[in-house]
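Running co-folding for tryptophan.
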Amino acid sequence: MAEDKNRAQFATRLGIIATTVGSAVGLGNIWRFPYEAGNNGGGAFLLCYILCIIMLGIPVLCAEFAIGRSTQSNIFGAFRAIKTSGKWHWIGYIGIIASIMILSFYSVVAGWTMEYLYQSIIGGLNYSNSDCFHSHFVSFSSSNWRPIMWTIIFLLCNYIIVVRGVKKGIEKMSNIMMPALFVLLIIFCINSLMMPKAGEGLAFLFNPDFSKITPKVVISALGQAFFSLSLGLGTMMTYGSYFSKGTRIVRSATITASLDTLVAILAGLIIFPAVFSFGMSPVQGPALVFEVLPSIFTQMPGGQLWSILFFFLLFLASLTSTISMSEVSIAFFTEEKNMTRTKASALNLIIALCGGVLSALSFGYFSDKSVFGLCSLDFFTFFDFTSSNILLPLGGMFISFFAGWILDRSRLKDTLTNEGKIGVKTFPLLVICLKYVAPICIVLIFLLGMGLF
Ligand code: TRP
């Protein structure tokens, strides 16, 4: 196992936050959160989601950062470095399968973003009626070659960046892009809140109807929390290994989780007031944001410019996320299988391309075909559901169990307190979460989902 003794480190404190937030914030917040909330009853979903972030997400994020920094290694090397016996590094395999599945369907949606950027530039989204946006999305996503073309272009962009292993570049880009995206979201949010039926949208998102909390809602909220924080497959462990000795792990995890959740809520505050004002349905699945946002832009003064800016930033935000998930399999191929970075990146690209094409065709040619006839889901939904709702929470459960039960307590404490230089008052609470709360809750939610209660 060739371990990199001179691992690059993030240059500044802002850089650390911008880069971890860069991995966390992406389509998960702006595309996936609103549609999952829309499908799962709005307020009921938001409530479960926030509970999952606080009770499970932040502790597991701390565990990933701590394991990564204390071992200076990727997910395989990290588990081996701490526990030479046993099969803990197998968690890494869950991570690789999940990361490639996510990359496959994520690139398709990132490709849609590129198409919408292109359409905004050529002025192709100038409809006056929101039904037209629906037909536009359906005819685009179900066509056979355009979504595939954009998926390929997106994966090539991702390849060009990961093959060079540019950490400094990512840090610089995130430093500018994340704040810019944030400002843009605030502007759109104010605009949506001034719409005629904004109140109905707010009530939908913030008034939980407790009768709507079903096992499906809880599982979706759990999956969304892990997906949005990039947890469960070792991404944040890798980023933790780039942290410097002085980085405060618990604080960084809390800031990352708060900003990530804030962006998701902002996205909800943009989408739902508009959904109700335009008389649309919140239950539209993956199409939701791609139908609502362009409708919002046509109603704003200077809409075309906003639209171009937004889809461009969303494209960059998707890229910073896919770079972080690609790093998991690339680290595996280079550090465990001794491949060169070029070969590893190419292999990652080829596998993701295959998955990407299957996912892209799920809206057209393959829309009525299930995964090799094995289940009733199309490829896109299968990749999304299996990775987000099953593999990520499973990985997170093992990671928290490992940090709580296997990892030496004094090592965990030293890492979290920077060798005793800083006080971490929440340490005992964190240990309880890692030892008991996170593993037990995740198992219970799985059992609940399998209908065992
Ligand atoms: N969190 C990212 C988003 O919200 C997606 C992502 C990046 C991810 N890396 C990950 C999800 C690792 C799960 C695991 O868009």
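Result summary
Residues 1-5 have pLDDT under 50 and may be disordered.
The pocket of tryptophan is lined by residues 23-24, 26-29, 102, 227-228, 230, 233, 235, 321, 324-325, 392 (CB under 6 Å).
Job closed.
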